[in-house]
Specification:
By secondary structure, this protein is of the alpha/beta class. It has helices at about 15-20, 30-40, 55-70, 85-105, 115-120, 130-140, 155-170, 175-185, 195-210, 215-220, 230-250, 255-265, 270-275, 290-300, 325-330, 330-340; strands at about 45-50, 75-80, 130, 150-155, 250, 280, 305-310, 345.
Length: about 350
């Protein structure tokens, strides 16, 4: 993720030239889609997308419009989505359509030669696309203090194994009846938990502790009557797991994002932030509180130039840690943070 200055973009073509170029390789966006694509790049934008309404089309063309019309450097664009498959699809479309559009613009005799030459210099490959955890992993790897070793991202099997060995089985916490009772209560009164299931529940607690930004000391100490010992055991188990991660220089999916938030809040990523201009987030309905904090911290650095896209089908709020209210209340949360209301666009036409 190279460092760039805020002024390294090249404003090259008009909005009309952009949309004319788009129609050389695909149909023109509809009125709703165009409203989303054409919104000023430095505005907050909240896109509420119905099923089959072309949200990936909007996101792709908005990225390309920012680069070709607004002069945003490709390396100053971050576009995230929720799954690796979706991220690969988004990147493929940005690159494919980007190259088609650049070819169309270079061939347009109505555009001055000097402008066409500048279009040819634009490297769409420098747009960053991926999941938030892959972005955070790259940040931790690329932005270290001198002498600091890059962390290793543990896969799910390694995380579960360490939670069992260093969290649950160390000190035989798995045999503590208070711990078993509390874990059962937290997950719907499932009795007779075996050790592996207890380890899974501890892992879920660890993840939610980070994803929901839980005030952990307060959660432990504010235990109702009869639960303090069990909460102390949970705290001990999670502390043992955390110590082992640190000892091995490992991060898991919860701590990789949490570590980046800590660095953002401490001002340790300023050189990286200075190269950014815009951030776009797809599948915002699957965002948890930790991730929103990261997005808003980045958006602060780009003066609120945050675009989010979410599906209004509530049945899609299905992934662990996702908080429906973050999507529903995005406008209010954005306005509170940036003292301005984001633009809002509904995509309602189903093209499937």
């Amino acid at each position: 993720m190279p460092h760039v200055s805020r002024n390294s973009g090249i404003a090259v073509i008009t909005l009309d030239q952009f949309h004319k170029g788009v129609t050389t390789f695909r149909k023109a966006p509809d009125q709703e889609q165009r409203a989303a694509i054409d919104t000023a790049y430095n505005n907050g934008l909240f896109i509420v997308a119905g099923p089959g309404s072309g949200k990936t089309t909007c996101l792709t063309l908005r990225v390309l419009k920012m680069i070709l019309v607004d002069g945003v450097a490709p390396s100053g664009v971050i576009a995230t989505t929720f799954t690796k498959k979706a991220a690969e699809e988004l990147r493929s479309r940005i690159l494919g359509w980007g190259f088609n559009l650049i070819d169309a613009l270079k061939a347009d005799a109505g555009i001055p030669r000097k402008i066409r030459d500048r279009v040819a210099e634009i490297d769409i490959n420098q747009v960053w696309t991926g999941t938030l955890d892959s972005l955070c992993e790259q940040i931790l790897r690329d932005h270290r203090v001198p002498g600091e070793q890059p962390p290793v991202l543990a896969d799910e099997f390694v995380s579960k194994t360490l939670m069992m060995r260093k969290g649950l089985l160390d000190g035989r916490k798995d045999q503590e009846p208070d711990l078993s009772t509390l874990l059962a209560d937290l997950w719907g009164g499932t009795w007779g938990l075996h050790a592996a299931k207890k380890g899974e529940l501890l892992t879920s607690l660890w993840e939610r502790r980070h994803q929901d930004l839980v005030d952990w000391p307060n959660w432990v100490q504010s235990a109702p009557s009869g639960q303090l010992q069990a909460r102390l055991l949970i705290d001990s188990a999670l502390s043992g797991y955390a110590a082992e991660l640190q000892k091995r220089n490992i991060v898991d999916f919860a701590t990789v994002e949490y570590s980046v938030l800590e660095r953002l809040q401490a001002g340790r990523l300023q050189p990286w932030l200075e190269g950014l201009r815009v951030i776009l987030v797809d599948e915002y309905q699957d965002t948890n509180l930790l991730q929103e904090k990261i997005y808003f911290q980045i958006a602060k650095a780009v003066k609120g130039a945050l675009t989010v896209v979410g599906d209004d089908d509530q049945s899609l709020y299905r992934f662990r840690g996702a908080t429906v209210d973050l999507f529903r209340d995005f406008e209010k949360r954005y306005q509170k943070q940036f003292k301005a209301a984001p633009a809002k666009v509904y995509l309602s036409k189903n093209y499937r």
